[in-house]
Amino acid sequence: MPDVRWPLSSSRDYNSPSGLYVDTIRENNLLQLVSEPTRFRSGQTPSLLDLILVNDPNLVAYHEVLPPFGRSDHVTLSCKIQLNITEPKKVTKRLKIIDYEQLNANLENVDWESILHSSMDVEIMWSSFVDRLSVECESCTSYRSLTTIPSKPWINKRMLRMLRNKKSMWQRYLRSRREEDYVAHRTYSNGIKVLLEGAKSSFESNLASSRDRKKFFRYIRSNLNTKVTIPMVRNRQGCVSKSAAESAESLSETFAASFIKEHDNLPRTNFAGSQGQLSSVEFPPELVEKHLSSLDIASAPGGDGISARLLKHCATSLSLPLSMIFERSFATHSLPGCWKEALVTPVFKKGDKHDPNNYRPISLIPIISKICEEIIHEKILHFALSNRVHIRPPHWAEVDLLLVYRRRKNLR
User: What is the rounded distance in angstroms from the CA atom of residue 304 to the CA atom of residue 340?
Assistant: First the structure.
């Protein structure tokens, strides 16, 4: 079909066979990835005859043109295909169930002032807090096993029993070869089909209306053809990493290379409106409890493993020990080592999934450290706006952002 030119043009008229071919490609939403000639013959114009057609460009990591085999006048196309690995049909998970009401009551009875002395090092205070919290959590935790089908999460235990019963009825028919056994199996199978379709529809409707976006996108990713997990990326030598540690090291080097260290020179301020001074920040338990109660339970935890759900449900009992830790940290100008660490997750952007430059890092720090940061931020913001602290040009944008932030907080 010499009249077909790539990329396809919507305004071009094709003859009957070529038009049918082009219409088929468009109707199936196919993409053609090869953009350079693939056939070379002496005395003729090079042409693009060898194609790579996909319905998702992420299916192919990259492709390259190699010399032809033997005496062929067609080049060799090499590409790497990235497919989703099928999950096991059944997965048994061990669910962790915490009685937050009982845990909150137990934590309220803890004498935190005797455990967390005001003269202790902040690292020791944090370790003592985490150890006691772990003990109390374990005493209020129960476990149970849950068998699910990852690709079909709407199937519950009752449906699994029905599917096993359907298989047994089919085995019974194979042994007897009786008409009544076949009719019974077909009737039962049709009933299960209607039940499964209704369960799937209900599951997807509830997922679409849910506020938990993570579950929604997790379900969407599970139905994609392309692999969402991170493969082994290439190192500096261009070779694919042989282990997860080597792949993580390559990603770490890539992220570090693009990191820009900001200068330490802070902008000068003008205190013309007031001579106020912010010398300390207080962390009253009531303020800490307010911030804990406003947490989003869907927020991912950091390296300490303390979830937003636990902090929110136990905000009343945890406000005092966290207030003491915050006060000590601010007074000693030090942070617990765990607060300085982050879980870095590479997020794929586009292109070759084996290229570390095609990922961007997402850092997860402990939620408790973000609470401390928010309280300090609020105190500094309130002081700056109350005392008319102005930042000299070209930093007026920061002042505008502070004003917008204050207005938004007042509207809530």
Answer: 11
For 312-330, the pLDDT digits (tens) are 999 999 999 999 999 999 9
Q: What is the pLDDT of residues 183-203, one digit of tens each?
A: 999 999 999 999 999 999 999
Coil, helix or strand at residue 277: coil
Transcribe 336-383 into DSSP letters.
Answer: -GGGG--EEEEEE-SS-TT-GGGEEEEEE--HHHHHHHHHHHHHHHHH
DSSP symbols for 176-191: H--HHHHHHHHHHHHH
Q: What percent of the chain has pLDDT over 70?
A: 83
Residue ranges of the alpha helices (H) in 8-121?
A: 16-27, 100-108, 112-115
Do strands 60-66 and 91-98 pair parallel, antiparallel, or not at all (unpaired)? unpaired
- DSSP label of 39: B
- Mean pLDDT score of the chain, rounded to an integer? 83
Residue 71 gets which letter from DSSP?
A: T
Task: Write the CA distances from 308 to 280, 297, 315, 347, integer angstroms.
Answer: 28, 5, 10, 22
Q: How far apart are CA 183 and CA 173, in angstroms?
A: 9
d(CA 348, CA 360): 7
Residue 257, H or E segment: helix 244-257
Q: How confident is the model at residue 234 (pLDDT cuts 50, 70, 90)?
A: confident
Query: Where would I find the H helices in 85-240?
Result: 100-108, 112-115, 122-139, 157-176, 179-209, 213-222
* Of 381, 250, 369, 212, nearest in space to 306 by CA: 369
